């Protein structure tokens, strides 16, 4: 198992290095941060001096060598815009994103497994059709629309939840509810599909013939075998949340890493962009390792 | 006796009045978080709206609320001496929020810091092209000797925020100033809090504490004021501004225009430039894609600016005349069939996509070949500012320019002088007029700026001026506050009254 993790880490490290190299050069090809930091009326000398101050005048390879040297010693540089270490800025934002992702995915996975399994058990029945419809709608509703509608209904009309912000527990309800909908819709479909085939397999029939009750059949016998594809999709969805839920962060004023990344790209705040990519990439790597472990736990064929 | 009683009652009344004046905390929701709270960056709106004149003060202050012109702030008075240099007499008994005394040395240091190469202070741009020597005469007197003589130095100093001498040259994140408020909390991504100071030199404002929140979505900002989560949002969208009791529109000092690149055929021909102007039905945009209260522009600066010229008339919508001019140019061999590209910036202002598409269609209507290209902010800058790309085609750059500072000098050189970074042409007469206007004072100055505005619009046909834009604010009914032209760049808490 350890060897497996080591191999994965090595492979991820190589792609991470490739990513950093690519982003470093691409971002520097797409525009001058001086032009964005200073107003359009700023003189050429001022822009020149800004570049000098931040080492942007050196040949790009020199800049790259310096960056790599700093990263190796654990220094991800300063944010051009905020005059503070890029890593601090990113970790601050990433903490919010991580909590949003963890809470949302826990709720989504639990709910989707129950709803999907029950739907599959009485495949074609009323509950199945209802849950299919709801999940299909969930998977296709645009989140910015949902977020605004949720604010209008719950904050303005009923005045029971705050519109946005981060002050207290109630502030988390709307963002998580909005983030919940799409992965829920997708995962319910996967659980259902996977469960339908698991429930029609020979061992389920055998269990039934032996008189095992419905509950244990669904949640013990079939579910364990149906979980593998579900875990893959859960991983996918969690990864997209870890990259930041840009729309939800923007609308609800959640200071997460998604909005930070977009803003930093637009402002050519290179160090923040690179630090954000580094942090989210490592998080996604760790999550993938967890998923692989979950596979191994569920399926002895992988374990051995 | 009776009179004494009345007098007494009046005196009692006025003595009690301050006690009855409401005071309290407010919450303000802004579209964009300040990435820094650096005083020398306060001329940038996301920073200025929080700290300008609230935390960091300037020697002078331009009043746009009552049109009183340039007012004293940290300077009590100023005068120009015979040799053209300026003397400023500073206010006494002023303390910074860190407890140190404000004096003339701080003024000199603040200026030196802005000009230092150890930072990238944006307010340096207002002092470009001049040599400034500052002499500290005594604690409350400071002389500015400027070469060449600078007639609007007092106005320029309304943009120089004063920091204590102890401030490091590098950017700070915790500003220290002489203003009525000091920074008491900054939780990045969440909130910034300013609290009123007890030891402020001036009148005590009614707002005791201001919490700034940041929401990128205008609908959410509007909703927050509606639900009472915030008291004031200086900018909401037009579609949200539906409640006359809380929503106010204001001319916001932004001017939308198409910058024409005169260097490239066929835009080098004045007939084509005139045709561009005649082909656009500006009126049709008002109340449709552009707010009803926007004003059609005849200058790059909005109407309350010195020298704004009421005699310059908006180009009429006359597609027939436009077609005729294009035909004439074509007959003279001008390559009118060359495709012209409009370069616009995504999300530059509300409805920019639809507005630019409509303009493209109107220009095509009169027989020009027009393409439309949207770019994001960094790339837009490459098209907008010099050096322009070699081998480019004819281009119109759609841009928005902000000048709330009352004098055209903040615009004219950049947009129209041969050396100006966003100037699409070169005309010796314009250069000369701008140079003379910049050096002139009083009525002469206003007259020369009027002349520049008329000449650039009518003779050179420098660009396609479109609209002076309006902004919309939502103000809670518990506050008494009307937005002004300056609201885009600063938000003085002392101007907010609590009902």
Please describe what this structure looks like.
The complex is a heterodimer of chains A (304) and B (499). Chain A has 304 residues and is an all-alpha fold. Chain A has two domains: 2-72, no CATH class; 94-267, MetI-like (MetI-like fold, Orthogonal Bundle). Chain A has 14 helices and no strands. Chain A has helices at 2-29, 33-37, 44-53, 60-72, 86-121, 126-140, 143-157, 170-199, 202-209, 214-242, 246-252, 257-267, 270-298, 300-303. In chain A, α7 (143-157) packs across α8. The mean pLDDT of chain A is 89. Mean pLDDT of chain B is 92; it is low at 1-19. Chain B has helices spanning 2-20, 45-51, 104-115, 153-156, 218-227, 270-279, 319-331, 352-365, 377-384, 409-416, 428-439, 442-460; strands at residues 24-30, 60-63, 69-72, 75-80, 86-90, 131-138, 141-147, 181-187, 191-196, 207-214, 232-236, 247-260, 295-296, 340-345, 370-375, 395-402, 463-475, 479-480, 497-498. Chain B is built from twelve helices and 19 strands. In chain B, strands 11, 12, 13, 14, 15, 16 and 17 form a seven-stranded mixed beta sheet that branches. In chain B, strands 1-10-9-8 form a four-stranded mixed beta sheet. Chain B has a four-stranded antiparallel beta sheet with strand order 4-5-7-6, covered by helices on one side. In chain B, β8 (181-187) and β9 (191-196) form a beta hairpin. At the A-B interface, α2, α3, α5, α7 and α11 of A face α5 and α9 of B.
């Amino acid at each position: 198992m350890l060897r497996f993790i080591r191999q994965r880490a090595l492979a991820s490290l190589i792609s991470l290095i490739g990513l950093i190299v690519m982003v470093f050069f691409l971002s520097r090809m797409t525009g001058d941060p001086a032009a964005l930091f200073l107003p359009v009326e700023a003189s050429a000398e001022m822009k020149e001096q800004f570049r000098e101050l931040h080492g942007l005048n050196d040949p790009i390879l020199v800049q790259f060598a310096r960056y790599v040297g700093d990263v190796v010693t654990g220094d991800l540089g300063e944010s051009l815009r905020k005059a503070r270490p890029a890593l601090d800025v990113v970790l601050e934002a990433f903490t919010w994103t991580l909590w949003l992702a963890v809470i949302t995915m826990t709720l989504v996975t639990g709910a989707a497994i129950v709803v999907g399994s029950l739907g599959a058990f009485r495949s074609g029945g009323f509950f199945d059709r209802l849950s299919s419809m709801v999940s299909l709608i969930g998977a296709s509703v645009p989140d910015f629309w949902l977020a605004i509608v949720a604010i209008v209904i719950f904050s303005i009309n009923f005045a029971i939840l705050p519109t946005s912000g981060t002050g207290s527990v109630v502030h988390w309800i709307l963002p998580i509810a909005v983030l919940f909908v799409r992965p829920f819709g997708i995962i319910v479909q996967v659980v259902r599909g996977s469960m339908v085939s698991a429930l029609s397999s020979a061992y389920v029939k055998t269990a039934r013939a032996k008189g095992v009750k419905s509950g244990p059949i669904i949640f013990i016998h079939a579910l364990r075998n149906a979980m593998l594809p579900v875990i893959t999709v859960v991983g996918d969805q969690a990864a997209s949340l870890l990259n930041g839920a840009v729309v939800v962060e923007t609308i609800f004023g959640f200071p997460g890493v998604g909005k930070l990344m977009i803003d930093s790209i637009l402002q050519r705040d290179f160090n923040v962009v690179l630090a954000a990519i580094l942090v989210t990439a490592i998080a996604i790597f760790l999550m993938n390792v967890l998923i692989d472990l979950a596979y191994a736990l569920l399926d002895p064929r992988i374990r051995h | 006796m009776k009179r004494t009683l009345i007098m007494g009652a009046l005196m009692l009344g006025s003595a009690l009045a301050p006690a009855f004046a409401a005071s309290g905390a407010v919450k303000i929701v802004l579209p964009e978080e300040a990435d820094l709270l650096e005083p020398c960056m306060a001329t940038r709106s996301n920073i200025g709206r929080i700290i300008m004149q609230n935390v960091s003060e300037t020697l002078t202050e331009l009043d746009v609320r009552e049109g009183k012109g340039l007012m004293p702030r940290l300077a009590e008075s100023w005068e120009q001496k015979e040799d053209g240099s300026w003397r400023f007499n500073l206010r006494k008994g002023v303390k910074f929020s860190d407890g140190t005394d404000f004096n003339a040395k701080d003024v000199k240091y603040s200026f030196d810091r802005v000009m230092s190469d150890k930072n990238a202070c944006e307010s340096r741009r207002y002092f470009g092209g001049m040599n400034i020597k500052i002499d500290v005469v005594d604690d409350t007197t400071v002389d500015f000797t400027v070469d060449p003589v600078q007639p609007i130095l007092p106005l320029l100093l309304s943009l120089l925020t004063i920091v204590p001498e102890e401030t490091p040259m590098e950017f700070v994140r915790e500003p220290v100033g002489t203003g009525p408020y000091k920074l008491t909390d900054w939780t990045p991504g969440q909130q910034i809090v300013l609290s009123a100071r007890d030891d402020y030199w001036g009148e005590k404002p009614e707002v005791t504490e201001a919490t700034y929140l940041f929401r990128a979505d205008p609908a959410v900002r509007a909703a927050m004021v509606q639900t009472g989560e915030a008291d004031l949002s200086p900018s909401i969208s037009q579609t949200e501004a539906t409640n006359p009791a809380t929503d106010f529109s204001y001319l916001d000092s932004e001017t939308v225009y198409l910058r024409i690149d005169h260097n490239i055929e066929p835009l080098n021909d004045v007939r084509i430039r005139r045709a561009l102007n005649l082909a656009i039905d500006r009126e049709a945009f008002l109340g449709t894609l552009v707010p009803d209260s926007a004003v059609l522009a005849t200058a790059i600066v909005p109407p309350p600016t010195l020298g704004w010229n009421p005699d310059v008339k908006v180009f009429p919508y006359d597609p027939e005349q436009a077609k005729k001019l294009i035909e004439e140019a074509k007959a003279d061999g001008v390559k009118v069939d060359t495709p012209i590209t409009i370069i616009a910036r995504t999300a530059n202002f509300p409805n920019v996509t639809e507005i630019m598409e409509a303009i493209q269609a109107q220009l095509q209507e009169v027989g020009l070949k027009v393409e439309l290209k949207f770019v994001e902010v960094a790339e837009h800058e490459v098209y907008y500012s010099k050096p322009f790309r070699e081998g480019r085609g004819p281009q119109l750059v759609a841009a928005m320019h902000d000048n709330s500072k009352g004098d055209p000098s903040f615009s004219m050189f950049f947009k129209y002088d041969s050396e100006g970074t966003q100037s699409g042409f070169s005309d010796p007469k314009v250069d000369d007029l701008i140079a003379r206007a910049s050096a002139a004072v009083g009525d002469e100055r206003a007259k020369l700026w009027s002349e520049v505005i008329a000449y650039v619009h009518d003779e050179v046909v420098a660009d396609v001026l479109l609209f002076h834009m309006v902004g919309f604010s939502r103000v809670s009914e518990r506050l008494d506050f009307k937005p002004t032209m300056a609201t885009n760049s600063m938000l003085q808490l002392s101007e907010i009254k609590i009902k």
